[in-house]
Batch of 2 targets.
Target 1
Amino acid sequence: MHIGLLFGFGAASHGAAASTANAKLLPLAVSLADWNSFTSTGRSPDGSVHDSHTLDRPTSDLTPPNNVRSGGDNVPELIVEPDWCCVGRPTNNTPTMREWIDNGASPSDMAYFGPNGLQTPANCSDVPGTKHTLMRNLQNAAGQPRTVLLYDTYRGGNYHVVGFAGVTIVGTAGNGSHQTVALQPTLVIDPAATTSGTSWNGGTKSVGPASPLSLVR
């Protein structure tokens, strides 16, 4: 099982200006308890270890989603039902959700959370209702290194976000009210990543599969 080899924390630095770059943030919240169990055992919330997809590194000749193929690669996948959350101003607007999936959270989205953007801990609003029409957008985002929110509690329609995880969508399944997304842990290069609300000097901005980084506006 290669999962342990993938888990390093990313560091934030200057690169693309945070005020002009979209964060590679998906409008998905993942339970911290589920994530910690997955990183320790490789098991998804259903108690099973899943490895049905192979993720290849994107290149100029192998672009997403073509870098995802069926068949195991000895890296477990976390299978979860999507917990949709707002990575900007609270909304139930489907076009806005599509934009977040397709292009990430914009600088103005991050500014909603304050002058330093989305800094943990923070509350991000739940998106009520089944968003089955968004599953196609998730599938279209397969193969792209992206970031999801990690939350420890859910109260009053808000996910209490305590961290971020670098992932790649490698598959979706289900229909109607029972849908799942398969996430493989990935190191994500994100120009909007910061540590403690500031940028570091030198290096590459990245979000590890379980990172203390924040996202700025």
Target 2
Amino acid sequence: MAPAQNASVLPIDTWDEIEWDRLLLLIEDKAVIPIVGAELSLRSVASDGQPLLLTLARELAKRLKVSAEALPPASPLNEIGFRLAARGGSAQDLYLELYQILKKIPIAPSEPLRQIAQITDFELLLTTGFDTSLEEAIMQVRRQEVLSLSYSPSDVQDIPGLRKTFRQPVIYHLLGKVSAKPSFVVTDEDLLEFFHALLAPQKRPEKLFDELAESNLLMIGVEYGDWLARLFLRMAKGEQRLSADRSVREYIAAATVSFDANFVLFLQRFSKPTRLYADDPALFVAELHRRWCERNPGKLFSDTAECREEPIERLPEEMPDDAVFISYVRSDIGAVRKLYNGLKIQGINAWFDCERLEAGDAYESKIKRSIKRCAVFLPVISRQTEDPSPRFFKREWNFAIDHSQNYLPDDPFIIPVAIDDSSASTAHVPDRFLTKHWTHLPDGEVTEEFGRQLRKILTKTRGNSTA
């Protein structure tokens, strides 16, 4: 097919108020699913002025001992994979080393991701990036736990049900999420294999694609070529042809250079409900965020900086031996940080997991290991822990209860801490917690008396362990 000439693209700055109002009304009606591209995370620019993706590729090349010279800015990781294969290296190492890099130095959320996170009408968010910065953005801004799911041809995860039944934000990594296994897209061949699998009904997350078919889609910074973009849109619409008379539409925001002329012409002829916004995706997000905030002041988190008001040093990834393990629900993170700092001031070595991104096998092993190594287990109880839905902190409670069987009944291994008016007489907690003395520390404020009691318990525990 010959390239289309003079394919028109509607610039964002020519939008009228009617177009913006239509999009915002759909978002406020929770009828829009955002699909966030890697351009807002992996392709963003770091504080040193360097593209994150290029910095990541150079570090990966160093670890894999392949050349980092003249890497193509658009696809440096794909080039690293090619160079590794060309010298006979193991393909597994590509994913393992990338996982190790991001585990050691995770990508911080960009400002556009934080702005997207603040739009609380987004309950289900898709991302084509393999990093977890979107999860971190939502946890920082909304102070909520996130259900993080991912797709791979060998492990087809699906969303838990209808979007309107979600009790927490759900993020779905459509092209896989970084792990030690080759289960996420790094190279062009990976991308081809993922799309090949998604085209097979038996390997498609059925509930997710049902939601996509019935929802308006907002694609921001998603960089697909002409035919790959067409395929994705067609897959997302289920049984409907793109040219069919349909009630939902797609909004695609990307830089002008990302729009292939043939793709634009195809949409104009065969998918008229689709709206194209040709501008810097970060500028689009900033404008969308500004307008949504002006219209929805009551939905804003007034204390989004709460996590930063109680600064703590970077916690070690693994819990130190004989420390105090703090178990909590993510929405209580502000009080938990205050609790942690208060214990440190009292000379008590404490630890809590800062990330709480998912409950995969590796994560469960880490938590079980930490509970076995801790001297005291502090379950933080509040109105937020009353949520009847499955939450991972409840599994931590059960792990601790199982481990407490190794202690005498009177040994104070589990010490419940209530940070609001929750009490043993009304809270929904395991029976084992009801036999323990509860400590009330409103908003996580540590008292001198509690610090004294805890130091006494820890001294006795360490003495018994060395006896």
